[in-house]
Amino acid sequence: xxxxxxxxxxxxxxxxxxxxxxxxxxxxxxxxxxxxxxxxxxxxxxxxxxxxxxxxxxxxxxxxxxxxxxxxxxxxxxxxxxxxxxxxxxxxxxxxxxxxxxxxxxxxxxxxxxxxxxxxxxx
Length: 123
What we know:
Number of helices: 5
Oligomer: single chain
């Protein structure tokens, strides 16, 4: 399958997926990105670290941008603070090559992902 066809397939898959599935996938991919970044830091693979961190940050920014403060202002403010903390830890890890900061970010996002899954209820 060509890269163009694969991208088109992924786009259709995302566009047709229920919103909660997309959010769940974002959390999963974020955690995978940070695992790759951590391995890259340990290996001193700066390019690999940068690519994984860039993608993880884009996910955090997308999640933050999707918050609807009009619907639930307090919840959104709390989530925004957590997303900003996560982004700060990732920036720190990026500059200082600090894998422990990635662990901190992963822990927060894993807990949020778990809470999100619980809020969805049984499938």
